[in-house]
Amino acid sequence: MKQSEFLKTVMPFKDKVFRLAKRLLVSTEEAEDATQELYFKLWKNKNKLADYNSIEAFAMTMTKNYCFDRLKSKQASNLKLVHSNYQENGTSLQKRVELNDSVSLVHKLIENLPEQQKIIIQLRDIEEYEFEEIAEMLQINPTAVRVSLSRARKTIREQLTKQHNYGIS
Amino acid sequence: MELANIEKLLEKYLNAETSIAEEKELKNYFSQGNVAPHLKEYETLFGYFSTSKSERFTKTIQLKTKKTNWKWLSVAASVVLLVSVYTGYQKNQEQKAEKIMAETQMALGMLSANLNKGTVAVAQLQQFETTKNKVFKQPK
C-alpha cells in the first residue's frame, strides 16, 4: 500500500479516533499522542490492513485497546487529568454561554459512566455508528451494545433530570 | 415535528431502539431552539452530542519515524570508533618508539662508559711500559 493510498483510507476517521481517545484519556494532549501513535501503528501494519473488511472498525478497536493500555500503564497514572479543556465549536456564542454549565455537566455525567458504556455513547450518540459496527469494534454482540447503550442513556437522563429539577448545575 | 412524536422517539431513544435517522431527527429538533419546557434537559444532552462531534484533531500526523536517524547514528558511531582505534594505534606506536629510543640511549651510554674505563686502564698500562723502558735498557 502506497502512502497516498494509505492516507486516503485512514485520514477520514482521524477525528473520530481522536475523539474516542479523548473520551477515554480525558486530556487533549494524551489524546493527540494516542492518535499519533495509533496512526503510526496502522502505517507499520499497512500491509495487513487489506485483510480487514472495515479498516475504520479495526482502527477504532485499536484505539480502544491502546487507550485501555495507556490507562493501565504507570505513565498515564502520573499524568494530570484535565477535565475542562474541551472546545465547543459550531454553536452560537450566546447559546454557548447559556449552555456552557449544563454542557460540562453532560460531559461529567458521561465521564462517570463505566468504560464500556462511555465508549458506546461516544460511538453511537456522537459518532453515529450503527449497532453492528459498534459490535464489531468492541467484539461483543449487537444486543449487548443495545443493552449497554440503553442503560447509559437512562443513567444520563436520570441525572440530568435530577439536576434540572433541583436547579443545580 | 409534533411534540407527541418527539416524546415517542425519546422513549425509544432511552431503550436504544431508535435508528440513526431517528436520532438525527431528535438532534435536529433539539438544536432548533424551540423546545418544549418539560424536555429542556434533553436540549443540553443533544447539544452536547452535536458540539462534541465538531471537535477536530488539529495536529499533523507523522508516519515517518526517526529510524533513518538511527542509521546515521550507527554510521557516525563506526566512524568515531575507527578514528579512535587509529589514533590509539598511532599513540601506541609512538610510545613503543620512545621506549626503544630510551633503551638504545641507555645501552650506548653504558657502552661509552665502559669504553672510557678501558682507555684509563690502557693509559695506566702505557705508564707501566715507559717506566719499564727507563729501568731496563733497551737491547739494541
TrEMBL record, chain A:
InterPro entries: RNA_pol_sigma-70-like (IPR039425), RNA_pol_sigma-70_dom (IPR014284), RNA_pol_sigma70_r2 (IPR007627), RNA_pol_sigma70_r4_t2 (IPR013249), RNA_pol_sigma_r2 (IPR013325), RNA_pol_sigma_r3/r4-like (IPR013324), WH-like_DNA-bd_sf (IPR036388). Keywords: DNA-binding, Sigma factor, Transcription, Transcription regulation. GO terms for molecular function: DNA binding; sigma factor activity. The keyword Secreted does not apply. The keyword Transcription regulation applies. GO terms for biological process: DNA-templated transcription initiation. SUPFAM superfamilies: Sigma2 domain of RNA polymerase sigma factors (SSF88946), Sigma3 and sigma4 domains of RNA polymerase sigma factors (SSF88659). Residues 106-155 form the RNA polymerase sigma factor 70 region 4 type domain. Residues 12-75 form the RNA polymerase sigma-70 region domain. Signal peptide: none annotated. It holds the Pfam family Sigma70_r4_2. Belongs to the sigma-70 factor family. ECF subfamily. This is RNA polymerase sigma-70 factor, ECF subfamily.
From TrEMBL, chain B:
This is Uncharacterized protein. The lineage of its organism: Bacteria, Pseudomonadati, Bacteroidota, Flavobacteriia, Flavobacteriales. It comes from the Bacteria.
